[in-house]
Specification:
With 182 residues, the protein is mainly alpha-helical. It has a single domain (9-173), classed as Intergrase catalytic core (hpI Integrase, Chain A), CATH 1.10.443. The protein contains eight helices and three strands; from the N terminus they run H-H-H-E-E-E-H-H-H-H-H. The chain has helices at 9-17, 25-38, 42-46, 77-92, 111-124, 133-146, 151-158, 167-171, and strands at 53-54, 59-62, 71-74. A three-stranded antiparallel beta sheet has the order 1-2-3, with no helix packed on it. Helix 1 runs antiparallel to helix 2 and helix 2 crosses helix 6 (133-146). The two termini are 32 Å apart.
Length: 182
């Protein structure tokens, strides 16, 4: 059987909990939360600019890669809290970049650093499978499908141009059969 390519909601919670007490807790918690909630690819997350995160309007301007459709998503209160905590720490670092996520060296966070962080938090959380950044994007799609979200809405949210990339989240969801045989 193929290894699962997504994290469950519970696994995402364990991953977030694994950031507690870590050297980059605020940044990494914010990174993981935004990647999961907004289905961000690692390059999209690492490429986020300060101007894309609008605390006043409570929105995230998602610039999709791979010819995806860019959208504006609402930021939920727990996300805003994580963003504010991270931005307070970030501002003390006085970076000379407009990158939202930065490294200790005050430059834009690299894909490799994000990858390694997610892999190590997965080990710390004792997840059943090795975690990688794209699993958070898939976790987002499956979580939305589990909530009964319309496939077209998931497509728009994840920025898919082709619906075929979105149906994987809904076709494997057993919840869609719940109303049968009542």
């Amino acid at each position: 059987m193929n290894e699962r390519k997504h994290l469950t909601g519970l696994e995402v919670e364990k991953l977030l909990a694994a950031t507690k007490g870590s050297r980059h807790e605020a940044r990494d918690r914010c990174l993981l939360l935004l990647m999961f909630r907004h289905g961000l690819r690692v390059s999209e997350a690492c490429g986020l600019a300060l101007s894309q995160v609008d605390i006043e309007s409570r929105v995230l301007h998602v610039e999709r890669l791979k010819k995806g459709l860019s959208t504006t998503h609402p930021l939920r209160s727990d996300e805003l809290k994580a963003v504010k905590v991270w931005l307070a720490i970030r501002s003390k670092m006085k970076p000379e970049t407009d990158a939202f996520f930065i490294s200790e060296r005050r430059g834009a966070l690299s894909r490799k650093t994000a990858w390694l962080a997610i892999r190590s938090y997965g080990k710390l959380a004792e997840l059943a499978l090795p975690a990688n950044p794209h699993m958070l994007r898939h976790a987002c799609g499956f979580a939305l499908a589990d909530q009964g979200t319309d496939t077209r809405l998931i497509q728009d949210y994840l920025g898919h141009r082709n619906i075929q990339h979105t149906v994987i989240y809904t076709t494997t969801n057993p919840a869609r059969f719940e109303r049968l045989w009542r």
